Amino acid sequence: MTSLAQAVEDIGDALDARDLDLAHDLFDRAAQGRQERMEALVQALAADVTIPIGAVIVDFGIDVWNNPHRTGFAWRCGDCPWTGSNYTTEHAARAAAEEHARGHRSVPRVGTFNEINA
After folding, report:
1. Alpha helix (H) ranges present in 4-80?
2. What confidence tens digit (pLDDT) does each residue in 9-50 have?
3. Which DSSP category does 108 fall into?
4. Cα–Cα separations (whole angstroms), residue 8 to 52, 58, 107, 109, 114
5. Which pTM does this prediction carry?
6. Region for 63 from its dihedrals, namely left if φ exceeds 0, alpha if ψ lies in -120 to 50, beta otherwise
7. Rounded-to-integer distance, Cα 16 and Cα 118, Å
């Protein structure tokens, strides 16, 4: 059985290479068809993504969550635990993220990983 840490690393590498078939296979093997294992894996994958403080990241769901089963676009706030997922367009995800950001006292920057890290 693959350790959770190794599964997260392997799935992340497959996603970075954009090999979604391999990422799905690795995820399914690591979850072993067990709900508690899948929940732990999903949490560990999400925790492996650094969302900068002062930013709301809007990007592909697979990148925001480090999860090959995510579809569409998503956003995650680096200043609080709020998130949004399953948007069909980047425009819709960005609009929701911008609305969320305006609710903070110090408005976080909203952008993709590339935009925020540029």
Report:
1. 4-16, 20-31, 35-47, 61-65
2. 999 999 999 999 999 999 999 999 999 999 999 999 999 999
3. P
4. 20, 21, 32, 28, 22
5. 0.87
6. alpha
7. 19
